[in-house]
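This section describes the prediction task in plain terms. A model, or a person checking by hand, is given the sequence of a single protein chain and must write out its three-dimensional structure as a string of tokens. No templates, partner chains or ligands are provided. The sample shown here is typical of the held-out split.
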Amino acid sequence: MAKSIISEDRLQNINFSNDEIARYSRHLIMPEVTLEGQKRIKAASVLCIGSGGLGSPIALYLAAAGIGRLGLVDYDIVDFSNLQRQILHGTDDVGRKKLNSAKDRIKAVNPNVQVELHDLLFRSENAIPLVRDYDIIIDGTDNFPTRYLSNDACVLARKPNIYGSIFRFDGQCTVFAPHLGGPCYRCMFPEPPPPGMVPSCAEGGVLGVLPGIIGVMQAIEAIKLIIGIGDPLIGRLVSFDALKLRFREFKIRRDPNCPICGDHPTIHELIDYDQFCGIPQADAEAAQELDVPTITATELKTKIDRNDKFILVDVREPYEHDICRISGSKLIPLGELPARLSELDSADEIVLHCKVGGRSAKALKILQDAGFRKLSNLQGGILAWSEKIDPSVPRY
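The expected answer:
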């Protein structure tokens, strides 16, 4: 059985009202939990980075369980596209700060929980002070910059880091805790992938109910560490396939050559990984890094109004094209472009676009390598067109 991360001396001043006894009664009658275990839950503090898809079930279930202090890190506002999976927020919350919406929902679930809001980007300059102030850190953001930053901060501060990952129909969960004998995230992936190498959930999508499964698993691991029961997912990674409803377990071991938790670490301070995929601006940033000729949505509208002769090529997928399109565009998905070059004339002026600009920048490079020269990439993609030119075009 695991040992609780909450020391005995922190339980001395923990008391419960009659209402709390009734609220947590199903815990109290479990021999693995009892009153002492519930005291540990109330004495504990958890920092959840992100209040979105993963953060929603994490925060809601930890609050319902009676966690004493729950910290939330987020800087975003609620968008309609969040509502399919981010159950902390409702339709009336669209446009509100996610933190404010989350606090209202958490307090409605359990007013006894102390909710602390951190309205900021989780960055190298604030990560260590934030992490040190909590017993457990849960990464609910599912993006590469935060994964590496939260991992490094937790290793340096000797805090358990409960990891969750979601993409399309697949999810993963484990606990990184080198100070408890396990590996860290860098033991699996020493360095982040190149920009644009791995698609984000915003580009590839995610089944709305999947974060509920993985987020609840992360919350379970937090409770186990707090009470000191069961077998924590330290050194074990659980993978979930929603399409087959199958769980698989993999052993992960601490790497003695790991750059931060190994025998001779080379990382001693935090850095930021802003250029890596998974963040909302990643596709646009990837486009900038490719350094391709661009055209703004306003300039494109002017060309259309003047009846200029040019070809507008949409390199998104057919199912994206079904959602929305710019009138008159020709659909050639990026993956099909090399085989369909004959459908384009190098003598024509060609404007390419995708959702936000990254894939169309790659398409432009393909055309340049094939000898096309009169090319430009729509800055911000069809989302910029919707925002600046035609709001009737749906955003997704």
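For orientation: The mean pLDDT is 93.
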